[in-house]
Design a protein that fits this description.
5-stranded mixed beta sheet, 2 domains, 16 helices, 5-stranded antiparallel beta sheet, 538 residues
């Protein structure tokens, strides 16, 4: 079957209901590492992206329409978007054009991406696999047009991927501003400038997800927080950290899909899922329920109203969309990432006075530290525990019936409220690891997990989730119960808790660590405090 022929029959047999008449067909698609692309193939890919970008935002095969399917800021105009977005965002996204698409169509097909949803029903991987296939169909139609226009053979049969574990620097094709005097459609000036310059690569998180035996349920502690299944452990930190490291458009869920590197990133995430699916295919995955499999997602194909509807179940076993219809040129698992050594505590940038009055009727164990700005250098916030609350803190871990009391604390957590990303934080992106009571000096061979309580990344904090956001600002809660119990270990409760935010450090082309550059604040935190309660933790 030729790629441009009807694909209705092939996908129906694979469990997909769709009608991609006249578009790129399902024939053999192979996604290749962008590093393997020839000069001519890069040229074809670049021209195909330009072709898609030149189409009207109302065209379902256009760059703007397909990007908005993922997510976008629903501003009625560029003037309104200017109030909330970094000015450079408007150099790439035309909100005036997006607003002209009928409202009912926008509501039905746009802003559909799934991130950080409930672990047991997570469709992060399944939705993005179908979305990537949908985008790829339009892309291949444009690569055919571009190849014919350039007089070159049609050698691209899938969206390329970027293997940042093997090559952490942004591919060269995305870092060149001008091609023969014309703007390069793969180059986005609104990224982290060191990433764009190639002087540093993205930081890649360890692939702990490959320790998972199921996709949605098995718990694992990563960066001090509990993740669930392969999906949860791959999305955060692996997926989120790459978004955050690139910065600019990629660091915000509303804007990320306008950066061409978004598609290479998600092709690689899908490739990692395919590797895991093949490695675990012999064992039935009991975390995948019939309800999960029946979930369907609908995408609009063209202006005539043709639709592509795919089910989550079609993506679940790696035998339908991938690898049978979609294959990858390499399914080799990346090597294990060297462990991050324990950093020493950064300088103290704020202190909560133990003399400050406590909030009545709350779970606060310390007063709030107010309005903290965190730069590239990170910083430590000292939370002094008032003497009246030290005895309460000391009841953590009282599990025996002879010791436990009605007022004994069952949990303690560091709470950060009103987290906002500054203009520089939006451009640069960031990943901070959050630690408790870091030593002031370096300790060789120390286990970072003894001190790590969480992480903050600019992509995770880009506030589109109403459950963690208030007035456009994000909140975070890091449970430290077990670590506090280990610290106390029948000793007195600590007089203070130090919370350190440490910016992840990347490697340059020479393999050496790139020290953080001086910067203004990348994020601002309205308040930080220690909380505890004998109520069930939320």
């Amino acid at each position: 079957m030729k790629r441009r022929s009807l694909i209705k029959g092939t996908l129906a047999s694979a469990g997909l209901a769709c009608s991609y008449a006249g578009l790129a067909a399902t024939g053999n698609r192979q996604r290749r590492n962008i590093a393997s692309f020839s000069t001519d193939e890069v040229k074809i890919f670049r021209e195909a992206v330009l072709d898609m970008q030149s189409k009207s935002a109302a065209d379902p095969e256009s760059w703007n329409y397909l990007a908005a399917v993922h997510r976008y800021g629903p501003y009625p105009s560029n003037a309104e978007a200017q109030k909330y977005q970094h000015p450079d965002v408007l150099k790439t996204i035309d909100f005036d054009a997006l607003a002209k698409v009928p409202a009912d169509e926008r509501a039905k097909y746009w802003r559909a991406c799934i991130h950080h949803d409930h672990p047991a029903t997570s469709h992060f991987l399944s939705w993005h696999r179908l979305y990537l296939w949908h985008f790829e169909t339009a892309l291949l139609a444009s690569t055919d047009i571009a190849a014919a226009r350039l007089g070159l053979p049609r050698s691209i049969s899938g969206v390329p991927y970027w293997d940042y574990y093997a090559s952490p620097r942004l591919p060269d094709a995305f870092r060149i501003p001008l091609i023969s005097g014309r703007p390069n459609p793969l180059y986005v000036p609104y990224r982290n400038h060191a990433i764009n310059a190639g002087t540093k690569g993205v930081i890649t998180a360890d692939l702990d997800a490959f320790r998972m035996g199921d996709m949605l349920n098995q718990p694992i502690i990563i960066d001090g927080e509990t993740r669930r299944g392969f999906s949860g452990a791959l999305e955060k930190p692996v997926h989120d950290d790459v978004h955050s490291e690139i910065g600019g458009l990629m660091t915000n869920q509303n804007n990320a899909s306008w950066d061409p590197v978004f598609w290479l990133h998600h092709a690689n995430i899908d490739r990692l899922w395919t590797i895991w699916q093949q490695r675990t295919s012999a064992t039935p995955d009991t975390s995948i329920t019939p309800e999960w499999r029946r979930k369907t997602f609908t995408f609009k194909i063209n202006a005539a109203g043709a639709l592509f509807e795919g089910s989550a179940g079609n993506t679940a076993d790696g035998k339908s969309l991938a690898p049978n219809i979609v294959t990858y040129d390499s399914l080799v698992l990346p090597p294990k990432t060297p462990p991050t050594p324990l950093p020493k505590a950064p300088p103290v940038i704020a202190v909560a006075s133990s003399l400050s009055p406590m909030k009545n009727g709350t779970n606060a164990l310390t007063s709030d530290v107010r309005k903290v700005g965190v730069t590239n250098s990170g910083g430590t916030i000292t939370l002094n525990v008032p003497s009246a609350n030290r005895s309460r803190l000391g009841t953590l871990g009282n599990k025996s019936t002879s010791r436990a009391g009605a007022k004994d604390l069952t949990w303690a957590a560091v709470v950060l409220e009103g987290i906002s990303i500054t203009a520089q934080g939006q451009r640069d992106g960031f990943v901070y690891h959050v630690y408790m009571n870091l030593p002031a000096t370096h300790i060789p061979d120390a286990d970072p997990d003894m001190y790590k309580i969480g992480a903050l990344s600019s992509f995770s904090l880009s506030c589109v989730d109403p459950e963690i956001c208030t007035s456009g600002k994000a909140n975070a809660r890091f449970v430290i119960t077990e670590k506090l119990v280990k610290i106390m270990n029948d000793k007195k409760a600590p007089n203070s808790i130090d919370v350190s935010l440490v910016r992840m450090t990347a490697k340059g082309p020479d393999g050496k660590l790139v020290p953080p550059e001086p910067s203004s604040a990348l994020l601002e935190i309205t308040s930080i405090r220690l909380e505890g309660s004998n109520d069930p933790i939320m």
